[in-house]
Specification:
It comes from Bacillus benzoevorans. It is an enzyme of class 1 (oxidoreductase). By secondary structure, the protein is mainly β. The chain folds into three domains: 2-44, no CATH class; 54-488, YVTN repeat-like/Quinoprotein amine dehydrogenase (Methylamine Dehydrogenase, Chain H); 508-619, Cupredoxins -  blue copper proteins (Immunoglobulin-like). 13% of the residues lie in helices and 41% in strands. It has eight helices and 43 strands. The strands form ten sheets. Strands 8, 9, 10, 11, 12, 16 and 17 form a seven-stranded mixed beta sheet that branches. The protein binds [4Cu:2S] cluster (CUK) and dinuclear copper ion (CUA). [4Cu:2S] cluster is lined by residues 110-111, 159, 226, 309, 376-377, 417-418, 479-480.
Length: 622
């Protein structure tokens, strides 16, 4: 009986809903919408033979990789393996990448940063850091591959990074987790005295293609969340947000949000540089460590709404905008006001020996769009507007930086973390597109089980209203991305032939196998469609060793031809590498398993690719 009544009520409710829907239905609007879909489709369609206008370098989060997309098509073009091994490219298997990966097999890549000249992306290098295992990496955009990885000592989770200064003088790595100085053991009861949030200043030596640590700063034991470098008038400065200034050591979810205010840390890196040059530092594990309590004049605190997440410097370098995360507001601060207060030494007090500026004297305005919740990160265009992601209310809000007025908002699916606008972190953003990097896709794409991909949505900024014109599922996790004009990059077509390159071999007849004690060294070539390891042997494509030998294989791809990449995999030896046109790669292993092991080219390179194979013969010990 009850079921029956419920059924009738259900039908009635259904009818009501249909009436409402039909009442709302307007055939004209439907037609207009279809026209819109067609225009939007045109906006993102990149016809065959043409290329995308922008590269998007997107963080792969805990996949440890960097993803590259074309904009506006939003097609995934390539993955650069960075902090995690990748069998497709042999990253983590060949000697060079294996050495760079060291003892780690995963990473958590958060914020990519393109190299800059005069505050503009110059298209030369791309930096990234690993929150999981305290590393920084640099990728060369000539080859789209990693040139160097540096493990930074004394720190715990460089999440705020990597952001670069306007001429790539430094990339700064502030950390999320406070750790005892030198990462010694210390009880959490001594958190406030022994733990520090260490920030590292890393430089890139372009000639050697090496990352180096210039110095570190022992900041209070707080969590540093996001940072940005100054520009133009603020070019010698940088800002970063903090939370857990409560210095709680457990149940952070509750305890780190007690105080009404946390801080933006404002630091002058030119001053820090001078201090270090003047010897104002202590040495820790071979690194110059500046203590801001002892050496004053470079670091200041600006109070801001509790537990801020992002902080972003405007393209003209005059302001920095903090996003509230827990407070429903963005706070606009003025660099000029901050400099004035610093010059006049007008401080509101001190925290851990660091001067605190007066909130009111630095703050320009609090921006509070109606019902917008969970502001995380802001990007900018060329017309003075900011675009802030709202994690909780799932939207992007466009507002005027000078007046604080909200001009537009667009719902995104769902919960955006960062957004990336075209040339967005430069002194001259393009204002053409912004991409919402959404943490949750839910029902957006074909379902693939309980966990779904994340999503990116491309938004056109050129019209009166922001308009979503494309959406793409992405692998975890889109923390941040940077979008650069494609014509700023000029990648190599082939690695140039270089006869002086160590261990390279450029003709078939120079291919050879030599033995030195227990080490067998192969100088081989790969070409369509064969391997030649030893030009004098009866079978040129066979490597014969003895069980227990150390085997070193150098392989040069002598097909100097666009996109003719060869692979080199050894069946059941868990080894693979890639050799791009003109490249020399080395793989090293101990032949610890006797037996017969086919080896083959793993990259489909020609009609006779399937014939491109040979054998590794491992003769058992007597
Ligand atoms: S964080 Cu703010 S959403 Cu790592 Cu830049 Cu992810
Ligand atoms: Cu070489 Cu397939």
């Amino acid at each position: 009986m009850k079921k029956w009544i419920a059924g009738i009520l259900g039908l009635a409710a259904g009818a009501l809903v249909s009436i409402l829907i039909f009442a709302d239905f307007n055939p004209k609007e439907e037609v207009a919408d279809q026209a819109n879909v067609a225009t939007n489709a045109q906006k993102v369609y990149v016809p065959f033979g043409q290329k995308d206008e922008y590269y998007l370098f997107a963080s792969g989060g805990h996949s440890g990789q960097m993803f590259i997309y074309g904009v506006p098509s939003m097609r995934h073009i390539r993955t650069i393996p960075v902090f995690s091994p990748d069998s497709a490219t042999g990253w983590g298997y060949d000697k060079h990448s294996k050495a760079l990966m060291g003892k780690y097999s995963w990473g958590d890549l958060h914020h990519p940063a393109l190299s800059e000249t005069e505050g503009d992306y110059d298209g030369k290098y791309l930096f990234a850091t690993d929150v999981a295992n305290n590393r920084a990496a640099v990728m060369d955009l000539k080859t789209f591959s990693v040139s160097d990885i540096l493990e930074v000592p004394n720190i715990g989770g460089p999440h705020c990074a990597a952001f670069v200064t306007p001429n790539t003088e430094y990339l700064f790595l502030p950390t999320r987790f406070a750790v005892p100085l030198g990462r010694e053991y210390a009880s959490l009861d001594e958190f406030s005295t022994k733990y520090k949030g260490v920030m590292s200043a890393v430089t890139f030596n372009e000639e050697k293609k090496k990352l180096e640590i210039a110095y570190q700063v022992a900041l209070p034991p707080w969590s540093y969340d996001l940072s940005d470098a100054g520009k133009k008038i603020s070019k010698d400065w940088a800002v970063m947000t903090t939370y857990n200034t409560e210095e709680s050591t457990t149940e952070m979810e509750i305890n780190a949000s007690q105080a009404d205010r946390d801080y933006i840390v404002l630091f002058n890196w030119r001053e820090l540089e001078k201090m270090v040059a003047d010897g104002q530092f202590d040495e820790l594990n071979g690194i110059k460590m500046v203590d801001p309590e002892k050496h004053k004049g470079a670091i200041y605190l600006v109070p801001t709404a509790k537990s801020p997440h992002g902080v972003d410097v405007t393209p003209d370098g005059t302001r920095f905008v903090a996003s509230g995360k827990l407070a429903p507001a963005m706070t606009v601060f003025s660099f000029e006001k901050a400099f004035k207060a610093i010059n006049e030494k007008k401080f509101a007090g001190e925290r851990n020996g660091i001067p605190v500026l007066d909130y009111k004297s630095v703050m320009e305005r609090e921006v509070n769009p109606e019902n917008a919740l969970g502001p995380l990160h802001s990007q900018f265009d060329d017309k003075g507007f900011a675009y802030t992601t709202m994690f909780i209310s799932s939207e992007i809000v466009k507002w005027n930086v000078a007046t604080g007025e909200t001009v537009d908002r667009v719902p995104v699916q769902y919960s955006p973390g960062h957004a990336a606008s075209a040339e967005g972190d430069t002194v001259s953003p393009d204002g053409k597109y912004i991409i919402a990097l959404n943490k949750i896709a839910k029902d957006t794409y074909l379902p693939v089980g309980p966990s779904h991909p994340e999503s990116m949505q491309l938004i056109d900024l050129t019209g009166k209203k922001m308009e979503i014109i494309q959406s793409a599922p992405v692998d975890p996790e889109p923390h941040y991305a940077q979008m650069i004009k494609a014509d700023k990059l000029s990648p190599l077509v082939v690695y140039p032939k270089d006869e002086k390159r160590p261990n390279s071999v450029w003709t078939q007849k120079d291919a050879r196998i030599t033995r030195n004690g227990n080490t067998v060294e192969v100088h081989g070539v790969a070409l369509r469609s064969k391997f030649i390891f030893d030009s004098n042997a009866k079978r040129k494509d066979v490597i014969s060793v003895k069980e227990g030998d150390k085997v070193v294989i150098h392989l040069t791809n002598i097909d100097l031809d666009q996109d003719i990449t060869h692979g080199f995999g050894i069946n059941s030896y868990n080894l693979n590498m890639e050799v791009q046109p003109g490249q020399t790669q080395t793989i090293e292993f101990i032949a610890d398993k006797a037996g017969t092991y086919p080896l083959y080219c793993t990259n489909f390179c020609s009609a006779l690719h399937q014939e491109m194979n040979g054998y590794l013969l491992v003769e058992p010990k007597a």
